[in-house]
Amino acid sequence: MDPDAVAKAFVEHYYRTFDSNRVALGGLYQDASMLTFEGDKIQGAAAIVAKLTSLPFQQCAHAITTVDCQPSGPAGGMLVFVSGSLQVGGESHALKFSQIWGND
Amino acid sequence: MDPDAVAKAFVEHYYRTFDSNRVALGGLYQDASMLTFEGDKIQGAAAIVAKLTSLPFQQCAHAITTVDCQPSGPAGGMLVFVSGSLQVGGESHALKFSQIWGND
Predict the structure, then answer these.
(1) A79 contacts B102? CB cut-off 8 A
(2) Where is the NTF2 domain positioned along the sequence (chains A, B) (predicted)?
(3) Quick one: which of A42, A48, A58, B89 has the most CB atoms within 10 Å?
């Protein structure tokens, strides 16, 4: 399968899950996973879910603007870069966001 | 050395070089390096330098806002995320930019 298509499908799945059921994001992380969120480093699926479910908003809707991916490492890993906007419940205008993934 | 300090030093060096002598960026890439630039994938130090020196501006000044890094892969690699602004010669206001590096 085309790596760009894999990256796009993953990203769409991730944010659809984020916007509908943040607890289920735990299934997309492992114990060795690390999330850096606004400078904080958070390790492991359980801690990452705790962080994402404690964000100070309930409703949110991510809109993806760009998805770029590159091969990474000898084991067929990928580096994925996403940018987009985030509409948070109760706020009148959208925030910009960007996020990257590596899976080596 | 602290990985965050290494990442910050690398990023400062990269953009100082970018702003003063783009050709010298070639020394920071290898033949296996890949740059994704606004959706284009460019492979190898020579091709990357050709791309960066052909951008439609001569003078530029990057200002770094955030540098985040995470360990990546079993071989001690890092994933680095940078955001900031870019002032281009002849333009009155700055552009936002973000860039990521992986070195597995």
Answers:
(1) yes
(2) 6-101
(3) A48
> Which ipTM value was assigned to this complex?
0.79
pTM of the model: 0.86
Closest residue of B to A83, CA-based? B98
Instruction: Please give the single-letter amino acid code of residue A75.
Output: A
Give the A:B interface size as CB pairs under 8 Å: 54
**pLDDT tens column, B47-82:** 999 999 999 999 999 999 999 999 887 778 899 999
Q: How far is A89 from chain B (nearest CA, A)?
A: 26
Asked if A95 reaches chain B (Cβ–Cβ under 8 Å), the answer is: no
Q: B19-42: string of b/e by CB count within 10 Å (b at 16+)? A: eeebeebbebbeeebbbeeeeeeb
Residue labelled with tokens 């994704």? B36
Q: What is the number of domains present in chain A?
A: 1
CA quadruple A44, A47, A52, A53: dihedral positive or negative? Answer: positive
* Ordered DSSP codes for B42-96: EESHHHHHHHHHTSS-S-EEEEEEEEEEEEETTTTEEEEEEEEEEEETT-SSPEE
CATH number of the domain that residue A15 is part of: 3.10.450.50
Within 10 angstroms of residue A27's Cβ, the number of other Cβ atoms is 10
**Distance of alpha carbon B95 from alpha carbon B63, whole angstroms:** 10
